[in-house]
Amino acid sequence: MSQLGIRAVLGVLWLLHWLPLAWLAPIGSATGMLLFALSRERRHVTRTNLALCFPDWSPERRERVVRAHFRRFGRALLESSIAWFGTPERLRRIVRLEDWHNVPADGRFVLLVPHFVALDLEGIRLSLEYRGLAVYAHQKNRYFDEFLVRVRSRFNGTRMVARQEGVKAILRGFRDGFSIQLSPDMDLGARDSIFVPFFGVNAATVTALSRIARLVKAPVVPAVIRQLDGGRGYVIRAYPAWDNYPGENVEADTRRMNAFIEEVVAEMPEQYLWLHKRFKTRPDGEPRIY
CA 57, CA 47: separation in Å to the nearest integer? Predict the structure, then answer.
């Protein structure tokens, strides 16, 4: 999309963010179904991912989840405008925290934030709670990339570190007093990745969580956002810090991360980011999936 097109979309989202959630939710669901109708590639990616990860499901069940996923994604897209443009007070009202006592009060932790559909709402909402550093991957469009960095760092001095800046930039931020937020459950290519199972499928998975936790010697605390039905907002649940993590084996650590995400996905399969080509990078000799 051109810069002008992105500006137009963001302008519409700015207007929509003034609406109450009771209005945004059905508009967002309808937007998701419009994306479903228009994006043949993303329909294919989502169906392929679900067929690989849930081969025992009936085709009818998978298709119901595919459509529900697009509705959830559309809602999250529109409702993220509240995190991008809204006030801290409203953001706190629509995204509440659960079991936040699991997060160390001293700010010395690594937060694992998997890619569920409302990731931006989660990251920006959590930036109201602590002084954090988040690692991100650059967007292809420079204007949109700069926009996301700006809105994601709008509260509490949040520092955004591009993956290309490397481990040193992350460690420097931790030494400066920032907590670390990582979302390493995407296929980012072969660099710094190993193949570990994700729902039984070999998935290229970056080992950043294990490596960073070992270097900073801080506890890993998972946090997952759940989109509630009926325009009732969101809940971010903080899970207890993992015992004995990192362990002796980076591969086992990375598999442990994927196994945790599998458990949460099983609770709300329509809310994981199936639009992403999770299995794009393949082991040598294996055919392309998409």
Answer: 12
Picking from 82, 49, 24, the residue whose alpha carbon sits closest to that of residue 201 is: 49
Helix/strand/coil for 179: strand
DSSP strands (E only) in 149-268: 159-162, 179-182, 193-198, 201-206, 220-227, 234-238
- Residue 165 neighbours by CB distance under 10 Å: 13
Nearest to 93, CA basis, from 82, 77, 107: 82
pLDDT tens digits, 97-152: 999 999 999 999 999 999 999 999 999 999 999 999 999 988 888 999 999 999 99
Taking the C-alpha atoms of residue 279 and residue 277, their distance in angstroms, rounded to an integer, is: 6
Give the Cα separation of 36 and 46 in Å (integer): 10
Measured distance CA(4)–CA(1) in Å, rounded: 8
Helix (H, G, I), strand (E, B) or coil at 103: coil
CA 138, 66, 121, 6 dihedral sign is: positive
Q: What is the pTM of this model?
A: 0.94
Token pair belonging to 45: 């990616």
